[in-house]
Amino acid sequence: MTYLFILEIPAGLKVEAWFGLAKFQPRISVGEAGGRSLGGGWLQYIVDLNEMSGKYLRGPIKTGW
């Protein structure tokens, strides 16, 4: 994990989100992982951000891992 995002939602506000295991990614063509394959099994989060909830998102924060 190279970057971290933090989503802090105030009490009373709801954000729709899903999570599950990512499948094997045969080839990534862009970004830092360009040209590499990524194994499956990683936990993947999908968050429905809109104009209101996007205000509470911080990042990307470089982790150094």
Tell me the major beta sheet. Answer: 2 strands, antiparallel
SSE order in H/E notation? EEEE
Low-confidence parts lasting 5 or more residues at pLDDT below 50?
Answer: none
Instruction: Quote the average pLDDT.
Output: 82
Rg for CA atoms: 14 Å
**Estimated structural class:** mainly beta
> What is the number of strand segments?
4
Please report which band the strand proportion falls in: under 5%, 5-15%, 15-25%, 25-35%, 35-45% or over 45%: 25-35%
How many alpha or pi helices?
Answer: 0
Percent helix among the residues?
A: under 10%
Concise synopsis of the structure shown:
This protein is mostly beta strands and 65 residues long. 0% of the residues lie in helices and 32% in strands. The chain contains no helices and 4 strands.
Architecture blueprint of SSEs:
Elements: E1 3-7, E2 17-21, E3 43-47, E4 57-62
What does this entry look like structurally?
- By secondary structure, this protein is an all-beta fold.
- The protein is built from no helices and 4 strands.
- The strands form 2 sheets. A two-stranded antiparallel ribbon has the order 1-4.
- The chain starts with a strand and ends with a strand.
- The model has no long low-confidence stretch (mean pLDDT 82).
